[in-house]
Amino acid sequence: MTGVAKRITIKRITVAIDCSPHSRASLFAAAEIAGMLQAELLGVFVEDINLIRMAELPFSQEIHLHTARSEPLDSLKLERLLKLQAKEAHELFIQTAERFGIPYRFRKLRGMVPTEVLEAALGTDLLAMGRSGRTPVCCRGLGSTAKKAIREAKTNILLTRPGLGADSPLLVIYDGSTGAKAALETALGFVREEASLHVFLLGNNVRKHAFLKEEAEMIIGKRIAKKEFHVIPWTDSRTIAQCIHMIEPGLLVLSDTSDTVSTETVYSLIDTIDYPVLLVKSPM
User: Fold this and answer.
1) Residues 225, 178, 279, 241: what is their CA dihedral angle, to the nearest 10 degrees?
2) CB 156 within 8 A of CB 42
3) Which of 134, 142, 194, 242 has the highest CB neighbour count under 10 A?
4) Phi, psi (deg, nearest 5) at residue 144
5) What is the Cα–Cα distance from 203 to 175, expressed in whole angstroms?
6) Are 246 and 208 in contact (CB under 8 A)?
7) Quick one: three-class SS letters along 29-43?
8) Can you say whether the dihedral through the CA atoms of 222, 201, 247, 266 is positive or negative?
9) For the segment 125-154, what is each residue's pLDDT rounded down to a tens digit?
10) 43-92 pLDDT per residue, tens
11) Edge-to-edge, what's the strand order for the sheet holding 126-130?
């Protein structure tokens, strides 16, 4: 075996909150992990400066989603709405943190949402957020803040969405690289007793698959009973995504560095699938 399997250390978790369904799911997941590891939870709500600036323009219009009726965008009304959202986020954060009995702090910021979220996460070990936020989008995929985070954040990223049970399978993409070993070790720290662990073995021949399976089994040891290995000889994001969909994981754990797939392929995969993802970032 080359390299050392090392689980990421999580002592401080930042969670971005905007009270959308995806954001609520990320808050619950982050608090659950913090409770499990006795980590500190930092909640962040960002008032979008772009919305505020837009409301100050004389030609800005607000279009109602259900009626398609438009009216001038009222900057004072927007300010009141942002305060209400911040209050709701704060209350939800405190209730969730106290439910899990974990130390917590909350910050309300104003600025460019992606930038403020990434800066708030500096010095923490995990940044949790929803796959998408409040802003409506016309297609599936990651929201703008999530896209910026997976590419630019200096900490590990947890992207979640609502609707998947705690007993859903955990899936790890494994190719024997140092990053993949860290992802597998980290997954073992999160897997529940009632859940199963699935490992995708990425290799281009039978001998490689056998080696990867033996190596992964040595890392797993006797720590989990329900485990399955799957041979995946493809390395393009579309085919891997199709294989992931067959498992329907409650959480996909993978690294942004691999000996088998490019970092861009990893980013494309995360954007394509509609499952929670824990991205283990390589040290900067």
Assistant:
1) -70
2) no
3) 142
4) -65, -40
5) 7
6) no
7) HHHHHHHHHCCEEEE
8) positive
9) 999 999 876 554 444 578 889 999 999 999
10) 999 998 877 777 665 556 555 555 556 666 667 777 888 899 999 999 99
11) 104-111, 40-48, 12-16, 126-130, 156-160, 277-280, 251-255, 170-174, 197-202, 227-232
Closest by CA position to 6, among listed 180, 225, 226 = 180
Model confidence at 168, in pLDDT bands (50, 70, 90)? confident
Tokens 């619950």 identify what position? 28
Rounded (to 5) percent helix, strand, coil in the chain: 40, 25, 35
Q: Which tokens belong to 24?
A: 């609520």
φ, ψ of residue 158 in degrees (nearest 5): -115, 115
248: left (phi over 0), alpha (psi -120 to 50) or beta: left
142, 132 contact by CB (below 8 A): yes
Measured between alpha carbons, how far is 209 from 206 in angstroms, rounded to an integer?
A: 5
Token pair 């985070």 in the structure block, residue = 149
Beta bridge partners of 15: 43, 128
